[in-house]
Amino acid sequence: MVERVASCRRCAAMEGRRRVLSEANGPLDALVLFVAEAPGRLGADRTGIPLSHDRSGRNFERLLVCAGLRRDQVFITNAVLCNPRGPRGCNRPPSSVELSNCATHLRLQLELVTAPVVATLGLTALRALDSLDPHGLTLSEHVAEPIVWHGRILFPLYHPSAQAMLHRPLAVQEQDYRALGELVRSLAAATAATARSAQRRTSSATPAAGISTSESHRMASLS
Ligand code: SF4
């Protein structure tokens, strides 16, 4: 998929921009799949690492700490994988055509990344998921409310940009991320308990046998 995206030429305005999808986005067995809007001009378009080295990236790092999560436990992507810029070279929101062009890449990432929780960062990301499988959520009404969606738990969050902080201050966003962390840990505890129960049943049936899945170990490490 990384090679396919690297050679993608669907959006004329993205010529010369980095396609921000690589191992630097995170592990496929992440605990949380974050979907933001688009790579930033001063951040991911330079570094190839989503939400890094710009103000949004620094805010995100701080918020991730509030959730009790590390970067190597999450996968971060965007509704469009290239940095959209306006006529003066500044970041601009992706157009509806660009979002539509990149929707197939987003759908495939959702299939490949097995994270039990999908957290959208901002309205554009929330709408991008709605276009893949309608959820009917609005950011203002459903922020930090977990709902079952597409076989996962969808957790809408505001974007960590300075602009979004005007609508949802950093201190409130920190609470949102703490709630996200609690959700992830409760899912981890439930998964670990299920794995232990299955292991006990298997052990009593065949004493020499044991079960161990990478998923249960990964989640258990958090509980
Ligand atoms: S934004 Fe997405 S669809 Fe458009 S050129 Fe970049 S990778 Fe391709």
Outline the fold blueprint.
Blueprint: H1 2-6, E1 32-36, H2 44-47, H3 55-67, E2 74-78, H4 96-112, E3 117-121, H5 123-132, H6 139-142, E4 147-149, E5 152-157, H7 162-167, H8 170-205, H9 214-220
Parallel strand pairs: 1-2, 1-3, 3-5
Antiparallel strand pairs: 4-5
Helix pairs in contact: 3-8, 8-9
The structure holds iron/sulfur cluster (SF4).
Key features?
9 helices, disordered C terminus, 223 residues, alpha/beta, binds iron/sulfur cluster, Uracil-DNA Glycosylase, subunit E
Beta-strand segment tally = 5
Bound molecules: iron/sulfur cluster
CATH architecture label: 3-Layer(aba) Sandwich
Q: Any idea of the CATH topology?
A: Uracil-DNA Glycosylase, subunit E
Q: What's the structural domain tally?
A: 1
* Number of contiguous helices: 9
Based on helices, strands and strand pairing, what is the structural class? alpha/beta
Broad shape: globular
- Assign the CATH superfamily: Uracil-DNA glycosylase-like domain
Order of helices and strands: HEHHEHEHHEEHHH
Give unreliable regions as ranges.
208-223
Distance between the termini: 32 Å
For the largest beta-sheet, the strand count, sense and barrel status come to:
5 strands, mixed
Helix-residue proportion: 40-55%
Spatial sequence of strands, sheet with the most strands: 2-1-3-5-4
Question: DSSP strand (E) fraction?
Answer: 5-15%
Radius of gyration: 18 Å
Q: How much is the average pLDDT?
A: 92
Instruction: Identify the CATH class.
Output: Alpha Beta
